[in-house]
Amino acid sequence: MVPADERAYRRIGWAVHEDEVRLTERRAPEFPELTSAWSITPLAKLRYGMPGPGLWTIYRPGAEPGTWERFGTPSRDPFELLARAAR
């Protein structure tokens, strides 16, 4: 959750595509007079059905841009995975 005093310039976003949920951090432009585009930084990716039916797996951004690394063990509860990753 984004603290109330940061919500004008920082947000958490998500996108769902088939069996995947991607979480991103969105930030307002540092110099709004030059651009109106918010920056987007990947935070985590949840995949359903990996490694088997009924299980969720969480991934964090990898060392190389566009890559992902599995984090921890799969779970039936995606919120549990998010809580583990936030620690």
Structure description:
This protein has 87 residues and is mainly beta. The protein has one domain. 10% of the residues lie in helices and 46% in strands. It has 1 helix and 5 strands; from the N terminus they run βββββα. The chain has one helix at 78-86, and strands at residues 10-17, 20-27, 39-48, 56-61, 68-75. Strands 1-2-3-4-5 form a 5-stranded antiparallel β-sheet, with helices on one face. β4 and β5 form a beta hairpin.
Write the SSE topology.
Blueprint: E1 10-17, E2 20-27, E3 39-48, E4 56-61, E5 68-75, H1 78-86
Antiparallel strand pairs: 1-2, 2-3, 3-4, 4-5
Q: What is the helix tally?
A: 1
| Helical residues, percent | 10-25%
- What is the averaged pLDDT score? 91
User: How much strand?
Assistant: over 45%
- Let me know the largest β-sheet: 5 strands, antiparallel
Q: Give start-end ranges of low-pLDDT stretches.
A: none
Give descriptors for this structure:
single chain, 87 residues, mainly beta, five-stranded antiparallel β-sheet, 5 strands, 10% helix, elongated
Task: Summarize the entry for a quick read.
With 87 residues, the chain is mainly beta.
